[in-house]
UniProtKB/TrEMBL annotation:
Reaction catalysis annotation: D-glucose 6-phosphate + NADP(+) = 6-phospho-D-glucono-1,5-lactone + NADPH + H(+)
Enzyme active site: H229 (proton acceptor)
Biological source species: Acidimicrobium ferrooxidans (strain DSM 10331 / JCM 15462 / NBRC 103882 / ICP)
Record-given protein name: Glucose-6-phosphate 1-dehydrogenase
Pathway assignment: Carbohydrate degradation; pentose phosphate pathway; D-ribulose 5-phosphate from D-glucose 6-phosphate (oxidative stage): step 1/3
UniProt keyword annotation of NADP present: yes
Family statement drawn from the similarity comment of this UniProt entry: Belongs to the glucose-6-phosphate dehydrogenase family.
EC number: 1.1.1.49
TM spans (from-to): none
Function: Catalyzes the oxidation of glucose 6-phosphate to 6-phosphogluconolactone.
Amino-acid positions noted as binding substrate in the UniProt annotation, renumbered to this chain: H167, K171, E205, D224, K315
Alphabetized GO MF terms: glucose-6-phosphate dehydrogenase activity; NADP binding
Domain spans labelled Glucose-6-phosphate dehydrogenase C-terminal: 178-452
Binding site for NADP(+): G11, A12, T13, G14, D15, L16, A17, R18, K137
Length: 458
């Protein structure tokens, strides 16, 4: 029998719902026949059930990702409640539609400034006992704020009811990184400070703030993607092997990585803004909000001490690419030539984990140039190909299904959120110190961070 589960979507008319959550909810419906989510959108715009369904069909068919018929079938599972989140009557109306005893899932895709009021109202309306709450990032504006919000949540909901979503943890390629690390025993002896010379994470985006200027300008790149997505991704690269791939030990191992990272020294961060950002709708004329960050991190753990970790994230850059590079030490002496005068060291071996636009894993090796001489050249091995069709909304679909199954494994814990804020805290209020041209590789100033490690990984 198909189980029916109420799914309340606060922020149903917003950007995240349009681009990610509604497509994800449709995939959930297609993939899982054992349950059906009865979706109730809750937002300020004045729709009724019928006009909201038409709005959803329009969104889902716009880029031809599904047929009108499929979208209409999905839209039948959706209803809508209009009102202001400050108005208690809205929550009473919601409680009249959804029985809290059905363990509804409540997704808060709303501006961070409204979390508190919505949490309080949900609790007052009786959702505190059984509802499962999905909370979007960024969770708070800084450490103190995250701790305060956590107290508000914890005063009404038990830990097992709270799911702090970071969609990077639901990405297929990110899951593959975990399997790659812990299902291949040959890697473990190499995965430490004795063999690895540096780690680099890049989240480069060729687009700007895409209509989200008002939100982004109060947040900036560090709060938007570094404190959450990139630090969570780093935990999977650097963590100790957990006892099992689910449960508390996995989340604890992830958190320990963040707890071992030193708060960023201001000199170890370069923050910049793309030219023309101030002209974006919703952005202040004199904004100094950074849209680019390059950061050098230090991990004070037995395994990683001394291995520099570089994180770069930015909008308005030359290309869209998210990847992690694990670079190994160079051979101790040069015994083969590399052609071209034979003076250069061969490039060091490296694993490159791609997350966007695809999920390949590559290994850079050296091999012999055919011919009479012993000359080496780089050879890229693709060790794991990817499902190129994997999209970001698939990650949300995965995580929504996890909540249905009460599985916290792929969610951020409060401890990891706080550890993340502790790391970025010293640079949170720092202004962009330079600008860069849209379509470039970012500010040249960032190169100083990698001066001692032969520059950024190409
Ligand atoms: N957009 C993205 O790519 C991402 C967003 N997030 C997070 O998701 C959350 C939502 O972001 P996003 O969708 O971009 O935000 P939007 O500003 O696009 O959407 C906000 C939503 O909240 C509703 N809303 C706001 N104030 C009220 C109110 N007082 N009463 C009733 N409804 C209200 C809006 O309804 P209406 O307009 O109908 O009034 C709208 O549905 C944020 O926490 C953000 O950090 C996380 C990752 C990526
Ligand atoms: O959370 C966010 O993520 C997106 C990038 O996510 P992806 O899965 O498409 O790579 C980013 O563009 C956005 O600014 C940020 O809020």
């Amino acid at each position: 029998m198909t189980q029916r589960i109420p799914f309340v979507l606060f922020g149903a008319t917003g950007d995240l719902a349009r681009r990610m959550l509604l497509p994800a909810l449709m995939s959930v419906r297609e993939r899982h026949a054992d349950y059906q989510l009865d979706i109730i959108g809750v937002a300020g715009s004045r729709f009724d059930d019928e006009s909201f369904r038409a709005h959803v069909v329009e969104i889902l068919t716009k880029d031809k990702r599904c047929s009108r018929e499929e979208a209409e079938t999905f839209a039948k599972t959706i209803s809508y409640l209009s009102g202001d989140y400050h108005d208690p009557n809205l929550f009473d109306a919601l409680a009249a539609r959804v029985s809290p005893d059905e363990r509804p899932i409540v997704y808060l895709a709303i501006p961070p400034s409204l979390f508190e009021v919505v949490i309080e109202q949900l609790a007052r309306a009786g959702f505190d006992e059984h509802a499962r709450i999905m909370v979007e990032k960024p969770f708070g504006r800084n450490l103190a704020d995250a701790q305060r919000l956590s107290k508000v949540l914890a005063s009404h909901f038990r830990p097992e009811q709270i799911f702090r979503i970071d969609h990077f943890l639901g990405k297929e390629a990110v899951q593959n990184l975990l399997v790659f690390r812990f299902a291949n025993s040959i890697l473990e002896p190499l995965w430490n400070r004795n063999y690895v010379s540096r780690i680099e994470l890049n989240m480069l985006e060729a687009f700007g703030v895409e209509g989200r200027g008002a939100f982004y300008d109060g947040v900036g790149v560090v709060r938007d993607v570094v404190q959450n997505h990139l630090l969570q991704l780093l935990t999977l690269l650097l963590m100790e092997p957990p006892l099992a791939m689910s449960g508390r030990d996995l989340t604890d191992q992830r958190t320990k990585v963040l707890q071992a990272i030193r708060p960023i020294r201001p000199d170890d961060a370069v923050l910049a803004q793309y030219r023309g950002y101030r002209l974006e709708a919703g952005v202040a004329d004199d904004s100094s909000t950074p849209t680019y960050a390059a950061i050098r991190l230090e991990v004070n753990s037995w395994r990683w001490a001394g291995v520099p970790v570089f994180v770069r994230a930015g909008k308005g850059l030359r290309e869209t690419r998210t990847e992690a590079v694990v670079e190994f030490r160079r051979p101790p002496t040069l015994i083969f030539g590399t052609g071209e005068g034979e003076q250069h060291q061969p490039e060091p071996n490296a694993f490159i984990f791609h997350f966007k636009p695809d999920g390949r894993i590559e290994l850079l090796m050296q091999s012999k140039v055919p011919g009479p001489r012993l000359i080496s050249r780089p050879t890229m091995l693709t060790v794991s190909s990817s499902d190129d069709s994997a999209r970001s909304d698939d990650a949300y679909a995965q995580l929504i299904d996890d909540v249905v199954r009460d599985d916290q494994t792929r969610f951020a814990t409060q401890e990891s959120v706080e550890a993340g804020w502790r790391i970025v805290d010293p640079v949170l209020e720092a202004p962009a110190e330079s600008t860069y041209v849209v379509g470039s590789d970012g500010p040249r100033e960032a190169d100083r961070l990698v001066a001692d490690v032969h520059g950024w990984y190409r």
